[in-house]
């Protein structure tokens, strides 16, 4: 009977036969940036909550830490937030920050460099002996010192990448060896004073007193950020991949502009824009471009995230490792020269004390993961600012060095704990 057939008049389907109905189509995953773009402010709020739940904290913890530190010390002593103290702070963190940048590169591989302190002292001693004691042209002596740091890093990278000695052992041995070589270079005097008119001293002490210089530098920086953001958005749009909407680019530019011009205003309230701070920021911009916009930078993140996967993708892991330690040695040399310019001397204590712990702490506190594959050169700036702010505030309050060491250690431990919990949350959310 007709009632035994389906309503469409087609043939009956035998019992137990597989269904001919098409399977439901899989819903493709939607990039979160597309959701943000389509939902506007609601999308941004939702994206922020998702990142917090999944452990993608970014620079938020260190920014909050800086705000808390400045609020506490500013309330205890108004001198801390004075233009003079903040200007001095911006100069004092440069040497440590420069060395910390090299540590960031090494940490991105999930490794460590324990030699940067002694390398910085050795390169400062090389410059002082060549220029002051032997009369070599100061620019040539500067280049020789920086090249010496690069050569030391290359040696470390060779033993690590080619010979297979763990980076911890290589750089620990290097820490002892290069410190001994520094003492040998300095000779029996033990200390070489650097004249105030020397290029190294001038690089640290020069300040642009004209208010226009600071504002022009801020304007140029903001303009370059806006142009780079727009170019990146156009490139991604042409490739038909998610890109930042124009409104978000404008908002981010406004925030950057507010920070830059407020900083310029504060610096102008004292003496003006310090040259070492300007050099530090320029280097950060250049190295950030290398890490985020070049093939080499992507290779570093790939090796740090999954070394076996990087090998199978055709990346030369030994080259990446050697080059990263070369960068670390070079930045240690540059940082050591700025530290020598700060105290206008190279001595047996150069690169010693708590310098090594401070630069490692700066990189980690700033947000670079100890486990590799996640971080930014801006971590060096943020971390150095945290450590420098703590030291400056406690010096103003008359706190002893013993307490300063304990507090800095506690902050470092807190940063590592946050990093570990963040990785655990990302693994639970399937994003690690």
Automatic annotation (TrEMBL):
Principal localisation: membrane
Superkingdom as given in the UniProt entry: Bacteria
Annotated membrane topology: Multi-pass membrane protein
InterPro entries noted in UniProt: ABC_transp_permease
Annotated region (Disordered), positions in chain: 1-26
UniProt keyword annotation of Membrane present: yes
Location in the cell: Cell membrane
CDD domains: TM_PBP1_transp_AraH_like
Keywords for this protein: Cell inner membrane, Cell membrane, Membrane, Sugar transport, Transmembrane, Transmembrane helix, Transport
Protein task: Part of the binding-protein-dependent transport system for D-xylose. Probably responsible for the translocation of the substrate across the membrane.
Protein name: Xylose transport system permease protein XylH
Organism: Streptomyces roseicoloratus
């Amino acid at each position: 009977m007709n009632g035994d057939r389906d309503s469409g008049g087609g043939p009956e389907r035998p019992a137990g036969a597989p269904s001919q109905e098409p399977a439901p189509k899989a819903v493709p995953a939607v990039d979160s940036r597309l959701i943000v773009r389509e939902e506007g402010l609601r999308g941004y709020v939702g994206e922020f909550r998702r990142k917090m739940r999944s452990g993608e904290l970014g620079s938020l913890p260190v920014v909050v830490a800086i705000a808390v530190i400045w609020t506490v010390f500013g309330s205890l002593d108004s001198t801390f937030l004075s233009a003079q103290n903040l200007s001095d702070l911006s100069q004092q963190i440069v040497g440590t920050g420069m060395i910390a940048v090299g540590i960031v590169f090494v940490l991105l591989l999930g490794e460590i460099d324990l030699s940067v302190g002694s390398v910085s002292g050795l390169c400062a001693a090389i410059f002082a002996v060549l220029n002051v004691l032997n009369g070599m042209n100061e620019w040539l002596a500067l280049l020789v010192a920086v090249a010496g740091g690069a050569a030391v890093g290359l040696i470390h990278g060779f033993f690590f990448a080619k010979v297979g000695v763990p980076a911890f052992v290589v750089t620990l041995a290097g820490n002892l060896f290069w410190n001994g070589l520094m003492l040998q270079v300095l000779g029996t005097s033990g200390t070489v004073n650097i004249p105030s008119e020397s290029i190294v001293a001038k690089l640290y002490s020069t300040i642009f007193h004209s208010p226009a210089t600071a504002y022009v530098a801020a304007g140029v920086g903001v303009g370059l950020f806006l142009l780079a953001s727009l170019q990146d958005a156009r490139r991604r749009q042409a490739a038909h991949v998610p890109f930042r909407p124009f409104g978000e680019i404008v908002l981010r530019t406004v925030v950057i502009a507010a920070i830059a011009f407020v900083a310029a205003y504060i610096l102008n309230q004292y003496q003006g824009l310090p040259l070492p701070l300007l050099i530090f920021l320029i280097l950060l911009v250049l190295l950030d471009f290398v890490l985020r916009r070049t093939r080499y930078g992507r290779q570093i993140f790939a090796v740090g995230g999954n070394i076996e996967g990087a090998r199978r993708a055709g990346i030369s892991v030994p080259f990446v490792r050697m080059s990263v330690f070369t960068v670390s040695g070079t930045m240690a040399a540059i940082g050591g020269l700025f530290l020598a310019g700060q105290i206008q001397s190279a001595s047996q204590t150069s690169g010693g004390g708590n310098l090594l712990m401070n630069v490692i702490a700066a990189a980690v506190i700033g947000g670079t993961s100890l486990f590799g594959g996640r971080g930014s050169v801006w971590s060096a700036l943020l971390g150095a600012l945290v450590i420098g702010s703590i030291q400056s505030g406690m010096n103003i309050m008359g706190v002893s060095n013993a307490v300063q060491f304990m507090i800095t250690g506690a902050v470092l431990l807190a940063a590592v704990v946050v990093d570990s919990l963040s990785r655990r949350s990302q693994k639970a959310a399937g994003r690690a």
